[in-house]
Specification:
Radius of gyration: 44 Å
Distance between the termini: 41 Å
Strand content: 25-35%
Structural class: alpha+beta
Helix content: 40-55%
Number of strands: 14
Largest sheet: 6 strands, antiparallel, barrel
Length: 333
């Protein structure tokens, strides 16, 4: 009779364990903070700031003028471009001289080889002519008799003529290849010069252009990295700009529960200070390594813990503040 009780106790234990596991999955709790996408505004040319219309932390509307500047391009830049063009032209001249030298060398080698072969052929023909003159006084030898094709002298002449044809073919092939290279010539360098001159003209035409920088969307000004009258070099940040509401949450999952969070999982996200502000967000990114969880994001700040970074996308309508601490409760399907 005790056997059924043991079975019932086992079933009860398993049920409690399963319920606890399901409860945990549904109630996985993380801490994080709201984060707003930051945009750094810069220019790919130097400017002088003439007018600055915003301060750090200021709220701005789309299209609002943030600053007005005047484009600056130093004469040094123009001199550099002219120097580059001069260097390329010098390189082209050297290259052309080298190619002309190769043409002359090729022609000289060709003429030398052909001359040597022709000399050999002429020598054999001269020898045959001398022999013919000697035979003309002998009645028993027909002086005008043609030599057979397999005569040693005829065979040597045929071999030299074949060599001459090969020299001609090789010369024509090398000449065609070299002429093709010369025809292509310095097209790349010519294009580079053309581009540099076009850039030079564009910069000259726009040397005194006034640049107005406006807000890309509604948002907040972050840091202002310039002041009126300041010279700002290429690609240096002028202003950092934030969207009006946080769009991301950065949270951390403890290293013991890494398998509990995956891309696409949903969380209910609430403000620590105002629980009525609650939104649903979706996991869009996971860190690639284990890191120390910041003290502010730990359940017990005094104890160091480690985990993985989790990035969750917020709805655009969220009213959280930048860097506001949030509590996240997992929603498992």
């Amino acid at each position: 009779m005790r056997f059924p009780y043991i079975i019932l106790i086992g079933i009860a234990v398993v049920s409690v364990w399963m319920l606890n596991g399901r409860y945990y999955q549904e109630e996985l709790t993380l801490f994080g903070f709201a984060e707003t996408k930051e945009t750094e505004i810069n220019l790919n040319f130097s400017v002088m700031v003439d007018e600055l219309n915003v301060l750090s932390g200021q709220s701005v509307k789309e299209g609002q003028l943030l600053l007005r500047a005047k484009r600056l391009d130093s004469d040094i830049k123009f001199e550099d471009q002219e120097m580059k063009i001069s260097e390329i032209n010098a390189k082209k001249r050297i290259w052309r001289s080298e190619q002309e030298g190769k043409l002359k060398t090729l022609e000289s080698s060709y003429l030398k080889k052909m001359g040597e072969v022709n000399t050999q052929i002429d020598a054999i023909n001269n020898k045959l002519a001398q022999q013919k003159e000697l035979y003309e006084g002998l009645d028993y030898i027909e002086a005008n008799q043609d030599l057979p094709a397999n005569h040693p002298s005829k065979m040597r002449i045929a071999a030299y003529e074949e060599e001459r044809r090969n020299i001609e073919k090789r010369y024509q092939l090398d000449l065609t290849n070299l002429q093709s290279i010369i025809a292509k010539g310095t097209k790349d360098d010519d294009e580079t010069i053309k581009r540099l001159r076009a850039e030079y003209k564009h910069v000259q035409d726009n040397k005194e252009i006034v640049v107005d920088i406006v807000a890309p969307t509604d948002g907040l000004i972050g840091n202002v990295h310039c002041k009126e009258g300041e010279h700002i070099t290429d690609f240096r940040t002028l202003i950092s700009f934030y969207e009006p509401n946080p769009t991301l949450v950065k949270a951390y999952v403890h290293e013991d529960y890494l398998v509990k969070v995956d891309i696409g999982d949903e969380f209910k996200i609430s403000s620590i200070k105002d629980i009525t502000q609650t939104y649903t967000g979706k996991v869009v990114g996971l860190g690639s390594r284990i890191v120390e969880i910041p003290a502010r994001m730990r359940k017990v700040p005094e104890f160091k813990t480690y985990g993985r970074e989790v990035v969750i996308r917020l709805p655009a309508k969220s009213k959280f503040l930048q860097n506001e601490k949030l509590i996240l409760i997992g929603i498992k399907s």
